[in-house]
Amino acid sequence: MNYHDLNFVTKRITRLGTQTIDNQSVQENSNRLILLHGFTQQMNSFDHLLEEMQRQISTEYPYYALDAITVDLPGHGKSKDVELSPKELADQIANLGPAHILGYSLGGRSALYCAILHPEQVNSLILISTTAGIEDPSEAMNRKEQDSRLANEISELGDGRLEEFLEKWLSGTLFANIKSKEDEIELRKSNSAKGLAYSLMNHGQASFEPLWGRLIQINAPTLILTGGADEKYCAIGKRLNEQIEQSSHIIFQDLGHALHIESPLEITRAVLNFITVQQSKH
């Protein structure tokens, strides 16, 4: 695997445990799962999910080995100074494949774009609370203005007061079902104000090319996951399901927007069932 700008870590998960391995030693034919986080998160946002994956692999898939590749997206974590266009980001994600790609929210849009631009590198897609973008020009302009104001607010607060922004961000209705906001703030506070402002203005929904008209190009089997308490994204998930040919949509009635944080057990069960079935077809 070639070195590139994004910070990423590979963990090999087997029934015996989880081991961080040298990215260069990942075998071409390994079972790879690339995980792409949401806005204000970092690669560590998937730690609970990977822990649950190891537990379920050890009990339900004892002969299965998975190379899980977690990525810090531009403006986040150790990629806080990385600046890439959405296309450049999709290109770099593709370089980590071929793989199954799991994306949440912000990361889900990048996963979609990667599947459109590099279908040969995407074995399957798992989209958690993901949209294909904003089609209406006036709605996109309003969102752009909102994101600009939010980016300015983050920049004015700076790194020293970033926790204030994170508290405000996580108090929104999208994250009402997250039980421990303090834990989430702890996981996110090492981000930089400059990086998050950059992400909003360059990878936010309004800055991202709407992909609805290109979903027909996706030929990877796709699993769409949404929470029943998140009505907006349930409707978006239904539309994705209608437009992506080989797709299925699961709604978890008691969950909200951040499914993998709210219930790692349920989401891991759905993801492992999906990717092991896809793997058996190859």
Could you please describe the fold and organization of this structure?
With 282 residues, the protein is of the alpha/beta class. It has 2 domains: 7-134 and 211-280, Alpha/Beta hydrolase fold, catalytic domain (Rossmann fold, 3-Layer(aba) Sandwich); 137-202, no CATH class. It is 42% helix and 18% strand. The protein has an 8-stranded mixed beta sheet with strand order 2-1-4-3-5-6-7-8, with helices on both faces. Helix 5 (162-170) crosses helix 6 (181-188). The longest helix has 21 residues, at 137-157. 45% of the residues are buried. The mean pLDDT is 91.
Strand order, largest beta sheet = 2-1-4-3-5-6-7-8
Q: In terms of per-residue confidence, which ranges show pLDDT below 50 for 5 or more consecutive residues?
A: none
Query: Structural class, judged by helices and strands?
Result: alpha/beta
CATH class of the largest domain: Alpha Beta
Count the E strands. Answer: 8
Fourth-level CATH superfamily of the largest domain? Alpha/Beta hydrolase fold, catalytic domain
- Kindly give the count of domains: 2
What's the arrangement of secondary structure elements?
Layout: E1 7-14, E2 17-21, E3 32-36, H1 47-60, E4 66-72, H2 86-94, E5 99-104, H3 106-117, E6 122-128, H4 137-157, H5 162-170, H6 181-188, H7 193-203, E7 222-227, H8 231-243, E8 247-252, H9 259-262, H10 264-280
Helix pairs in contact: 1-10, 2-3, 4-7, 5-6
